[in-house]
Write a structure and sequence with these properties.
There is one protein chain. By secondary structure, the chain is mostly helical. It has one domain (38-319): Rhopdopsin 7-helix transmembrane proteins, CATH 1.20.1070. Helix content is 66%, strand content 6%. The protein has ten helices and four strands; from the N terminus they run αααααββαααααββ. The protein has helices at 38-73, 81-101, 110-142, 147-157, 159-168, 193-228, 230-235, 238-266, 274-297, 302-309, and strands at residues 171-178, 181-189, 311-312, 318-319. Strands 1-2 form a two-stranded antiparallel ribbon. Strands 3-4 form a two-stranded antiparallel sheet. Strand 3 and strand 4 (318-319) form a beta hairpin. Helix 6 packs antiparallel against helix 8 (238-266). The radius of gyration is 22 Å and the shape is globular.
């Protein structure tokens, strides 16, 4: 009989989930020491599965909601770094969401279990890369092409990517086939739960710090522009929207990261909040880039577009922008 090894809930792939029927789970990951029974694991995993399903539905909903904007504002433009980031983020997230739907199928062998697990984890890790690239590019543009800020943001945002990649090497795939549950694909790992809890806290704090630097850059490097162009700001929503989006997105992601730390550390519905972080981050990327494209292409917003899309020095003198 396979043993129920202690594993880290955070390190399990967010795309890995079970069918909605709580009594027959085809794909499950064993939890931390606080959950000692199969029924407890089923209860936790079912809650997580619902959250993953909701986050996947959210990605599909946002895609169809903004598809007309994508066709108008992105497809007709030549390829550059912004377009590459947009498409990479957009379609990796769609593949991740689509892949989640495949989890309702029965995976009863270690080979099939491992294959589904690995593909799901790789797609999820790629979303971290998209977020790091987007955050660094945004800071690089708005800070007057300051490489120090951009590098700091990228490094901090990539900490979860490297952390999860390292954890991934410690996974062991198993199939539970003992009464009362059969054909149960699950994953164990060789790292202590305490170590993984600390790693999760560090990863989330790095993400929060990275987002805080982005917020600081947005507020700090546009402060002079807003003061000296009050007429332009009042006449069009470009600058105001750019600043408000940065603040609002930061608050949302900050709340999610804090909740993830608390719920994981207490082992209460672990990983449920985490299942929303990367999908929402992906939506933020798409929305931000589409908004910037919209502002850039709207004739009445030419001045605001120049302000938003240009890099700025501390004395608010615009230079060429990589985001256009």
């Amino acid at each position: 009989m396979p043993s129920l090894c202690t594993i880290d809930a955070r390190s399990t792939p967010r795309s890995q989930h079970a069918p909605s029927t709580p009594t027959v789970l085809r794909s499950i990951s064993m939890s931390g020491p606080a959950i000692t029974t199969i029924s407890g694991q089923i209860h936790q995993q079912t809650a997580y599965q619902y959250c993953v399903a909701m986050s996947s539905a959210l990605i599909f909903y946002d895609y169809f909601l903004t598809l007309h904007q994508e066709i108008k504002l992105v497809w007709s433009f030549k390829i550059n770094i912004v377009v590459v980031i947009f498409h990479f983020n957009r379609y990796v997230s769609l593949l991740w969401a689509l892949f989640n739907m495949l989890q309702i199928l029965q995976w009863t062998t270690i080979a099939s279990c491992a294959s589904m697990y690995v593909v799901g984890e790789v797609l999820f890790l790629m979303l971290y890369i998209a977020w790091a690239a987007f955050s660094a590019l945004r800071v690089y543009a708005i800070s007057g092409r300051n490489r120090v800020y951009a590098t700091a943001v990228a490094v901090l945002a990539l900490v979860p990517f490297f952390g999860d990649t390292a954890t991934f090497t410690e996974f062991v795939f198993n199939v539970w086939n003992e009464p009362p549950i059969h054909d149960l694909c699950y994953v164990t790992y060789r790292v202590s739960y305490g170590t993984m809890t600390k790693a999760t806290i560090v990863e989330r704090l790095c993400l929060v710090t990275s987002d805080a630097i982005v917020l600081f850059a947005i507020v700090f490097f546009t402060r002079g522009v807003v003061k000296t162009t009050s007429t332009a700001v009042s006449g069009n929503p470009g600058v105001v929207r750019f600043r408000q989006d940065g603040i609002q997105y930061f608050i949302v992601l900050l709340i999610l990261n804090i909740l993830d730390i608390v719920m994981f550390a207490t082992n209460v519905y672990y990983n449920t909040v985490a299942s929303f972080i990367c999908p929402i981050s992906s939506i933020v990327i798409s929305r931000c880039l589409l908004d910037l494209r919209q502002v850039h292409q709207t004739p009445v917003d030419n001045e605001a577009s120049a302000i938003i899309l240009a890099s700025h020095t501390q004395n608010s003198q615009p230079t060429a922008s990589p985001i256009s």
